[in-house]
Amino acid sequence: MSTRLGARIAGIGFWSPLLPGWPVARDVLAGLAPPPAGPPAKASARLLAPTERRRAPDTVAIALDPRSLPSIFASTHGDLPINDYMCSTLATTPALCSPTKFHNSVHNAAAGYWTMGTGCMQPSTALSAWHDTFANGLLEALVQAVAGMTPVLYVAYDVGARGPLAAVSPSEGLLAMALVLDPRGDANPADWRLDASVEALPAPSQSAPAPAPWDALLPANAMRQCLPLLAALTGSGDSSMLLRLGSGSRLAVTVINAAAQGPA
Amino acid sequence: MIPLAVTAFTATSAVGNGNAAHAAALRQGRSGLRRNDFTAQPLDTWIGRVAGLEALDWPQAFARHDCRNNRLAWLGLQQDGLRDAVEDAIRRHGAARVALVLGTSTSSIGATEEAYARLGVDGSFPPDLRRPEVHTPHSLGLFVAHALGIAGPCVTVATACSSSAKVFAQAERLLRLGIADAALVGGVDTLCGSVLFGFNSLELVSREPCRPFDVARSGISLGEAAGFALLERDGAAAAWLIGHGESSDAHHMSSPHPQGLGARLAIGDALARAGIAPGDVDYLNLHGTASQKNDEVEAALIAELFPATLAASSTKGWTGHTLGAAGILEAVICLLALREGFRPGTLNTTTLDPQCGPQLRLQGEYTPVGIAMTQSFGFGGNNCVLVFAQGARR
């Protein structure tokens, strides 16, 4: 049978224009703070907020050194505005195609810039599984972590569509979630642990969940696939979810609030 | 690592459909490249185009998946008993215990390009192309899972030209941890405007058939291909996957690290995982795109790391650079080298770049091949190296 895939969450990142950063998102989604006032934030290149870094003990800070982490980037559609640019240009003036836009059109552009920006020479991958992208990316991240006994960086994101492509690949705004998953014991304190396994059963059909109070704060982005896990990480207790991996298989994820249970 | 059995494999490219066509073309030095006749305003270049995709009999049940990339996938799946082998694996393990991990660079972006070329007066997609399934990178995985009835985890890897090499590493981890009992890996990439005009904009496209590692090389010839391999923990193995290595250059989006640092890490990781020394490799299929920079860096690296007894070559002169399908296509060429006892040479190349060591071979030769290795380097500095062997060496 399938191995249990366990990891503590050694870091959480989140970004969307009305909830820019995990500390803000966590407090608003948990109902502890009102949404930030003012205009939507502009995206910055920072994945983990400084406050998260300050909260982390030294061992976590080492684990979070990005140069030491293999990374898994998951995106449903990749860079939709660049695809719109490429297809528009090809339909009209193909010889004028921009070389920079072209090399940025690869699905692993974000992964490539991450490794360049951090000087990380660890393996990096970029994947897609349409509506099951978040689940398959999370599975690959957990598998890499457990198989290599190494912390990994998992980033799931989508951007907004532009032009005619928006009709077939709908996605609005920006939404990104990042996790550092560490499979190595419970030696270090962490607020949350993930325990997952792959089941040879179809995932239950998604009935539309009742909209959470914060639902309107997040755009109609293709990576809303991450919301069940996001909601679990803003609660106070344990929770579980079933995420579709393929037509007959699913990822059963239990999110354990280790902080609530006290030190292991 | 514990070796994995390759229980079935196949490739389809410009040189022909299936393994026998590839083995014959490699022996005979018959290139699949031809003058570019692709897109409305063809660039002056040579391409590796797969014949007959437009006329392929497309099953009505797959109507919503119809596009050039999935047609090539379907043609590839018909070869070398691949579909039967997958059906058999599903019977033995159960459909949900078979994983699907495929690689592509551009998937079916060609269908999106076509929609933009035929937009309605209101700017909307033509009705026949209002199919969300073909306008997303996972188009390939969606189609193959549907066509073969694979129900396990299903994912498309898209790390440019290393995509369908990395699928072997991902599948190995899934099998090692017991997440799946079999994995169909592979990749498909098809010619489209994006890659032809995109590589042209980077001034990487040659006006002549590509000449890997030639001192007078002038760039790449683009190609298209489909390839698949079925991986299991044990069974009637055609060969074994004994190592894989992955790394990042952390250097530039479309240019390799000048000293090949990332490639070096991936090679070292693959050899260590296989538990072998550089001198144990009998044949090395190089990335060898015939771009100035790739071949310069790769030639110096091979000259430094491997003994003169190694036979290394690039087979891009036969197939062109098939991008996201290059990993699987060249893995299959390694598997054929093991099976046929034939180390392919390098086609179209006459005078080797002085950077090349004695490992670089222009002529193919018959000799037993025990271990074959292939390396794939992609945009974003994404590297992957695979090692295959005749025996499991457990």
Q: What coarse outline of chain B follows from CA principal-axis ratios?
A: globular
* CATH architecture title of chain A: 3-Layer(aba) Sandwich
CATH topology of chain A: Peroxisomal Thiolase, Chain A, domain 1
The CATH first-level class of chain A comes to Alpha Beta
Reported for the largest beta sheet of chain A, the result is: 9 strands, mixed
Q: What portion of residues of chain B is helical?
A: 25-40%
Straight-line N-to-C gap of chain A: 27 Å
Structural class of chain B: alpha/beta
User: Helix count of chain A, per DSSP?
Assistant: 9
Question: What's this model, at a glance?
Answer:
The complex is a heterodimer of chains A (264) and B (394). Chain A is of the alpha+beta class.
Outline the structure in words:
Chain A has 264 residues and is of the alpha+beta class. Chain A has one domain: Peroxisomal Thiolase, Chain A, domain 1. Helices cover 28% and strands 24% of the residues of chain A. Chain A has nine helices and nine strands. Chain A is globular and about 60 Å long. Chain A starts with a strand and ends with a helix. The model of chain A is unreliable at 52-63 (pLDDT under 50). In chain B, helix 2 packs parallel to helix 5 (139-148). With 394 residues, chain B is α/β, with parallel strands linked by helices. The chains are: A alpha+beta (264), B alpha/beta (394). The interface between A and B is large, with 69 and 77 residues.
